[in-house]
Write a structure and sequence with these properties.
The structure holds three protein chains of three kinds.
Chain A (H helix, E strand, L loop, with lengths): L21 H13 L3 E6 L2 H5 L5 E2 L5 E4 L4 H14 L6 E6 L2 H5 L2 H9 L4 E7 L36 H7 L4 E6 L3 H12 L4 E7 L3 H4 L6 H10 L5 E5 L3 E6 L7 H5 L10 H22 L2
Parallel strand pairs in A: 1-3, 1-4, 4-5, 5-7, 6-7
Antiparallel strand pairs in A: 6-8, 8-9
Helix pairs in contact in A: 1-7, 3-5
Chain B lengths: L1 E5 H11 L4 E4 L6 H12 L6 E4 L3 H13 L4 E6 H6 L1 H9 L5 E6 L13 H4 L7 E4 L3 H18 L3 E6 L7 E5 L3 H7 L16 E2 L5 H33 L6 E4 L6 E5 L1 H16 L4 E6 L1 E3 L3 H7 L5 E6 L9 H11 L7 E5 L9 H13 L8 E2 L5
Chain C lengths: L20 E2 L11 E5 L2 E2 L1 H5 L6 H9 L3 H11 L3 H7 L3 H5 L11 H14 L15 E4 L3 H13 L3 E5 L7 H4 L8 H13 L2 E5 L17 E4 L5 E2 L15 H10 L8 E5 L3 H12 L3 E5 L11 H10 L2 E3 L2 E9 L2 E15 L5 E5 L5 E4 L2 E4 L3 E2 L21 H7 L3 E2 L2 E2 L12 E3 L10 H19 L22 E4 L23 H4 L12 H9 L12 H5 L5 E3 L17 E3 L9 H5 L5 E5 L6
Classes of the chains: A alpha/beta, B alpha/beta, C alpha/beta.
Chain lengths: 292, 384, 605
């Protein structure tokens, strides 16, 4: 109707995501984009639970659960297996959390994309180890509270720039996406599907229990992340050509984004200014690379 | 076709003849020749397979798991630390009931770094649910690779075949390399019953609550027990097709043996010579080679040792805090049986230290001279 | 509904943990403690329209290019879109939430576009298939009378409208000049009313050729005679020659009479009649000045009319009141005026004008047009016919009328059903309500029609909304909560400027009576309609459906939709409460506040 998004639903109700989970909505949209000739690999993350317990599944496509650090390696094996059996059409999609991508899974991911294995690796990033109870990961943003970066000692290092890391591998396609911009997300997955080689899509995925936010606000927060330039939406081709795909319509200070989230409620004015400076500087750098 | 080839190449030929479809491997001494020649086969079009150059052994096993889940015949090879790194995924392959075949070149664990042979690496994985075969010769290695796929695909469990570092891996022996057509008739293409298939989608490996988990584990053990007969049959058929069979265990001069040496892998070859010598001297001594370690062939071993007064198990491995693993398993196998002779557990040859005919003669003499072992572990040739 | 999978023994299980069913067995609706519901609410435009139009509904139809359905939707409530789209003061626009993001929607001009388009397509309204026996008489063919007749006829009642003047239309005919309301527009919409079965009898004046006993043939009467009497200035000299009251002046011009007013006209008053009179005088070659006793801010005339008058060269003097007509040989020569200051507010809420001592001054004039107020005509409805006796329980209208109607504050007293104190007699329009616009009169006539319908069927006349609120012939089942700007989710809307309709250039305008406002093209009408937020009214934008993380919202049907989208009452989607976890994302993201949240039932005490 009003959204250029395919109608078919490949995610079923009854899944175990928390109310308002950005990760479940992003899977729903990604599968709509990719269609039923898709196979999903889920290393240990929230989706290991969301997908449903044996003997039930919430996906209408084949799904393989796998060990935490194997998102890249299992995908390589599956893709090789499919191709040797004559199937070059099925899209292989690894669907991993930030832990399994930025931390424990980084090695296998780097290897897979260095080989330019033909698959899509999507990281739905809720910025901490949420499935195990909100512990910090290298995707946790500076200043955020988690159980292992408590308020008296919040995260002191910046969020790892996974997109830059992927782009540095010179893979055909790297992109960021988030749930508040569903058409942008769908378009990026569809574009990825049409490219042979490694594709990496980084999805910012609001998490009400982990971010200490209202479930109803997940889309709003996702939108504010983009509008305040904390999480710009862009794509990189072959590690060289940067392009911003959604330009913020208005000037939004990061404060607007931060104030809705309990995990940032301890931040001082100084902290917020520091974050604003960093966001501004990163944005300028991105714009310089991407052009207008 | 007969060729004089090293054990590692025997593995490669086995995998080629078995028409492995996806090979994912990471180099580690002394396994490297296995994958080198396999990648040559692939590059030359002699083997229609996808060769994934993974970045670690953990990823190698993960990739094999992926490929096998997609319905392809998957193969890998590793050694020592590489096998240890795969440990998590070995469990996974079993729980996922995937017929993956792997060759492991037995190598000692560091630190300090040791590239020489020891069985502790593979035996440390004995609880993971993989079938394990310990090979005595390069011919046996090649033949076991082929048999392994047949067995694995029948029982839906992964199979590991093991060869000694350098003594087999790098030692050239004459090997009969069978014709492809013959192998094809013995081992048809893999037709996976459960696989990732967009036309019949399922989720694999999801959360299993205490309500269901135990039954799945029960089924794995059932498969292991069924495997014993499957292995026997596969070996028999192989014998029929290729003229060679090996059994789960092999007895040598057991008929009236009072003392039986229990060995595995290349120590067996050396032990045969010593048994012959001692028989010349009038000792009633025999040899039991244990080829299949998992599932542990309890019935075959009890039967083989039914007449023995004393049993000497030779372990080129150790489970710290307990003892040589073949010895412990043999003791356990006989405990509930009718006949329980004293079992002498000898640990020798760790870190690739040579086990010579003299070493084995020493073990045999100790056993002949003692009614019961003096210690639970009898260390041989340790400087102490 | 998928069944739970139960394994009796291990033999029933697959050898590996492989799914055999779906999570649809897991009804996650049990997690909820709040639930969303589709609840269409009242947009401020619908709330404000005195004629009770479903504005949000027809704007949605215009957006889709469904002009015929849009026009029909208006005609369901208001038979005069062509008129209203030209003369209404558009209170709908004054409350439009879009004002805050580019300007209110030009609803008024879109309404006009639809009427003009319908005319170009020769569209008509169908008569009712139902025919009742009970007959209704309507006195007065102004907007109230014709609206009442129209609605009754559409329900199947035979209605006769009695009009004193030679042509029907009331104020629309004689009080509003052609340059605001071309006659063919009015004629066409009156013809539509006759086409649904209303009989209009012109030249029939109550108390003259229309006798009380004639009304006895009818089962109910609606009095909509308007306020025909112009209030006198009550200053010396106002009987002189050269003084013509506003309505009388406009009436004569409309009839085509030669009315000499040039060269200098003074119009007294601040309402639309005063402005119309001044602009008409201008077009007849005169210089025209309006004298108003308060300031611009208090002037009751429609803002656009005042602006157009000023553009055309009408002069307006504020804070000025005439105190004496200056004459010579019984003819007007000028006006003596006094300047006013504004004091405390009076009963109308506006600041009371107070003459400033010693500020008298004189203005030259040869024609003075007072247009300060209208009043009920004396007596025409208070006649007695002595041959009738009043009997207990006698409900015949003629007798009721003879007994007299209660009048208060210069208007006939009516209740919320539009009923007077006399049984079977209803009243409305300017004669009974204080609002003074065509749209209010139309609403008033409709109210009476709905009441008369109930009355004739023997039903209670209860449940009508207060007189200040509009009634609906086809009410939609929506919540009375009125949507405010803060209730909308602005993330879904861009700031887009309101379109202005083109106007004839001033030099051309003042030379004659051609229409000043030129209306919207189809493209512009649609572009304007696209800006509508659709406040409180689900228009199937799919936002809720797309953002539900639990796939718990589904469309109830696929296009094409059987009713206009905006009339679906949120029945376009269904929440699957078996799975809805109550996250509230749908309600939060709904651009137009068509979804509400309520506490889950089990948590309610």
């Amino acid at each position: 109707m009003s959204y250029a998004i395919p109608d078919e639903e490949l995610l079923l109700s009854g899944h175990l995501a928390c109310p308002g989970c950005g990760g479940s909505l992003s899977m729903r949209l990604a599968l709509k984009a990719l269609g039923e000739e898709t196979l999903v690999i889920i290393p240990a993350c929230c989706w290991s639970i969301i997908a449903g317990a044996f003997p039930y599944s919430s996906l209408k496509v084949p799904l393989m659960h796998t060990a935490f650090e194997t998102g890249g390696s299992v995908a390589a094996g599956i893709k090789a297996g499919l191709e040797i059996l004559g199937d070059t059409k099925t899209t292989v999609l690894t669907w991993a959390g930030d832990g399994g991508t930025f931390d424990i899974g980084l090695q296998a991911l780097s290897a897979a994309v260095e080989r330019n294995d033909d698959f899509i690796y999507a990281c739905y990033d809720n910025e901490a180890y949420m499935n195990t109870g909100i512990q910090r990961s290298s995707a946790t943003p500076w200043g955020a509270w988690t159980t292992t970066t408590p308020v008296r000692h919040p995260k002191e290092t910046p969020k790892k720039d996974i997109v830059a890391i992927m782009a540095a591998h010179r893979i055909p396609y790297t992109a960021t996406a988030t749930v508040a911009y569903p058409e942008d997300l769908v378009r990026k997955f569809q574009k990825a599907r049409g490219i042979r080689g490694s594709k990496f899509i980084h999805i910012l995925s609001p998490c009400p229990p982990g971010w200490k936010t209202e479930p109803a606000h997940s889309i709003r927060i996702s939108r504010l992340a983009v509008e305040s330039k904390v999480f710009p939406l862009y794509e990189v081709e072959n590690g060289e050509k940067w392009k911003i795909t959604v330009w913020p319509r208005r000037e939004v200070p990061v404060r607007e984004y931060l104030k809705l989230q309990g995990r940032f409620s301890h931040l001082t004015e100084e902290d917020i200014e520091f974050i604003q400076e960093n966001v501004d500087r990163e944005w300028e750098r991105l714009v310089a690379r991407a052009g207008r | 076709m007969e060729k004089v080839i090293m054990g590692n190449h025997a593995v490669s030929y086995g995998a080629k003849l078995a028409r492995a479809q996806v090979i994912a491997a990471y180099p580690i001494t002394p396994q490297t020749q296995i994958v080198e020649i396999l990648s040559e086969f692939c590059a030359d079009g002699l083997l229609d397979a996808k060769f994934i150059k993974v970045e670690s052994e953990h990823s190698a096993m993960a990739a094999c798991i992926g490929a096998s889940s997609a319905g392809a015949r998957a193969f890998t090879a590793t050694s020592g630390h590489g096998l240890a790194l795969m440990h998590e995924m070995l469990h996974w392959a079993t729980g996922a009931r995937l017929p993956i075949v792997m060759a492991n070149v037995n190598r000692a664990m560091g630190p300090g770094w040791s590239i020489w042979t020891e069985q502790t690496d593979s035996l440390s994985q004995r609880d993971t649910g993989w079938l394990q075969f310990y090979c005595e010769s390069n011919q046996e290695v090649l033949d076991t690779v082929i048999q392994a796929f047949k067995i694995a695909e029948r029982v839906l469990l992964p199979v590991m075949l093991v060869l000694d570092a350098f003594f087999l891996s790098h030692t050239e022996e004459p090997v009969d390399i069978p014709d492809q057509e013959l192998v094809d008739s013995y081992l048809p293409p893999y037709d996976a019953r459960y696989k990732l298939d967009t036309s019949d989608p399922h989720a694999f490996g999801a959360l299993v609550t205490p309500d269901h988990y135990m039954e799945l584990r029960y089924k794995i053990q059932q498969a292991m027990e069924e495997a014993i007969e499957v292995v026997r049959q596969a070996d028999r058929e192989f014998g029929g097709d290729f003229g060679r069979s090996y059994g789960l265990v092999e007895g040598y001069r057991l008929e009236d043996a009072e003392v039986v040496l229990v060995t595995s892998a290349t120590i067996t070859s050396t032990a045969r010579v010593v048994v012959d010598e001692l028989r010349e001297e009038g000792h009633k001594i025999g040899l039991l080679k244990v080829r299949m370690f998992r599932p542990f062939p309890v019935e075959d071993i009890r039967e083989a040792l039914a007449g023995a007064s004393k049993v000497a198990v030779i372990d080129r491995n150790i489970s710290f805090g307990h003892g040589g693993i073949f010895a412990e398993e043999t003791k356990a196998a006989l405990y509930n049986g009718a006949h329980r002779p004293p079992i002498f557990g000898f640990v020798i040859g760790l870190g690739g230290r040579d086990v010579t005919p003299a070493s084995i003669r020493g073990i045999a003499e100790y056993t002949l001279e003692h009614d019961v072992p003096e210690t639970e572990i009898i260390w041989r040739e340790v400087k102490k | 509904m998928p069944e739970e999978i139960v394994f009796k023994t291990e033999a029933d299980m697959p050898p590996l943990p492989m799914s055999l069913g779906t999570t649809l067995v897991n009804k996650t609706g049990s997690w909820r403690y709040i639930r969303p519901l589709y609840m269409d609410k009242t947009p401020p435009c619908n709330n404000k329209c005195p004629a009770g139009e479903d504005i949000v509904g027809y704007l949605a139809l215009v957006k889709e290019g469904k002009y015929k359905q849009a026009w029909e939707l208006i005609k369901q409530e208001n038979p005069f879109p062509g008129v209203c789209g030209r003369v209404c003061p558009h209170p709908c626009e004054s409350k439009c939430n879009r004002e805050e993001l580019g300007g209110a929607i030009a609803i008024h001009t879109i309404e006009r576009f639809l009427a003009d388009w319908a005319a170009s397509q020769h569209l008509g309204v169908s008569a009712s298939k139902q025919r009742y026996d009970a007959k209704v008489a309507v006195i007065g063919s102004g907007p109230a009378g014709l609206s009442c007749a129209y609605h009754l006829a559409r329900r199947g009642y035979p209605v006769t409208v009695f009009e004193a003047l030679p042509l029907a239309g009331g104020m629309m005919r004689v009080g509003i000049p052609e340059y605001r309301l071309p006659r063919q527009v009015l004629d066409r919409e009156i013809a539509d009313i006759e086409a649904v079965g209303v009989e209009i009898r012109n030249g029939m004046r109550l108390g003259a050729n229309l006798r009380m006993s004639d009304l006895d043939d009818y089962d109910a009467v609606f009095i909509a005679v308007g306020l025909q009497q112009s209030r006198k200035l009550s200053i010396p000299g106002e009987e002189a020659e050269g003084i013509v009251h506003g309505l009388e002046f406009l009436n004569r011009v409309h009839r085509g009479e030669e009315v000499q007013v040039a060269p200098r006209v003074m119009v007294i008053g601040g309402g639309n009649t005063a402005v119309d009179a001044a602009r008409t005088a201008l077009r007849l070659g005169s210089k025209a000045t309006i004298l108003y006793r308060r300031s611009r801010a208090e002037m009751p005339a429609i803002t656009e009319e005042i602006e157009e008058a000023l553009a055309e060269g009408v002069e307006i003097r504020y804070l000025t009141t005439p105190i004496e007509v200056l004459t010579e040989s019984g003819r007007v020569t000028g006006l003596k005026c006094v300047k006013m200051g504004l004091g405390a507010p009076d009963e109308s809420g506006r600041r009371r004008p107070i003459p400033i001592e010693g500020s008298e001054y004189t203005l030259e004039a040869n024609t003075i047009i007072p247009a300060i107020a209208q009043e009920l005509e004396d007596g025409s409805w208070k006649l007695e016919d002595g041959s009738w006796k009043l009997e207990a329980g006698d409900r015949r209208p003629a007798l009721s009328l003879a007994a007299g109607l209660e009048v208060e504050g210069g208007r006939i007293v009516i209740n919320e059903a539009g009923a007077t104190t006399a049984p079977a007699i209803f009243a409305g329009g300017d004669a009974a309500t204080p609002f003074g616009t065509v749209a209010h009169a139309i609403g008033s006539g409709k109210r009476a029609a709905l009441a008369i319908d109930r009355y004739l069927r023997g039903e209670e006349l209860s449940g009508f909304p207060p007189i200040e609120e509009a009634v609906h012939a086809f009410p939609r089942d929506t919540s009375p909560i009125i949507v405010r700007f803060e209730d909308l989710n602005l993330a879904y809307f861009e700031e887009l400027e309101r379109m202005a309709q083109p106007q004839m250039p001033v030099e051309k305008r003042v030379r004659g009576f051609q229409e000043v406002n030129l209306g919207f093209s189809e493209k512009d009408a649609q572009a304007e309609a696209e800006r509508c937020f659709s406040c409180g009214t689900c228009n199937l934008c799919d936002t809720c459906l797309i953002f539900c993380p639990d796939v718990a919202i589904a469309r109830l049907m696929a296009p094409p939709y059987p009713v206009p989208l905006a009339c679906l009452n949120g029945a376009g989607y269904k929440v699957n409460y078996d799975y809805c976890k109550g996250c509230g994302v749908c309600a939060e993201e709904c651009p137009r506040y068509a979804i509400s949240i309520e506490e889950e039932l089990k948590w309610k005490k």
